[in-house]
Amino acid sequence: MPEKASFSPDLFRFLKSVKRHNTREWFLAHKPQYERDVRDPALRFIADFGARLQRVAPQFVAIPKPVGGSLFRIHRDVRFAADKRPYKTHVGIYFPHRQVGRDVHAPVFYLHLEPDGCFAGAGLWHPGTPALGAVRDAIVSRPGEWRRVLRAVTLSDEDRLARPPRGYDPSHPFVEDLKRKDFLAVAMLPEARVCRAGFVDDFADVCGGMRPLVEFLTKAVGLPF
Description:
alpha+beta
């Protein structure tokens, strides 16, 4: 039997509708559509990806739960935000290390689904000071490994410090990386690719290509890989 696609264009149509009608009343009236076209396909994808993730990075997990799992909730946290729109207009799915659970500031694999803006990502986003220092120390102490990472992946140009962090050699060959506040790799994904059969394997291949970065970061912050 041919493999079915994980996602359909209906997911993107629903997200476009959320953008046009971002109110609690509209969403509640269309909640069954959200569950059918967005939530349930995402949960099936997470479940299907689990075995493939074990082959890429056995210490990372796929948790197919509607609450408290790999699927980010669609509700926005507006408590301290100037933008009070209640719902996100994208789907976020993350695959964390089994020892850190829902800490999004730890090494992670990530899938972002948004009309005209889908991508796969991996790495370390907004790490705290101890984790950031551990990664910088690992780059300094294991430059050969870091060089191999940079040969394998292209890091996105996120925010950097204007000057080298205190305590690090300004002439270090990787000083520009020591200035980084995030360590992320991103691969853009056309919607047509997301909606075709076999995308779960495509995503596994993309994550496999990002594995060297995640392995380096995971070990740098003292977690098993």
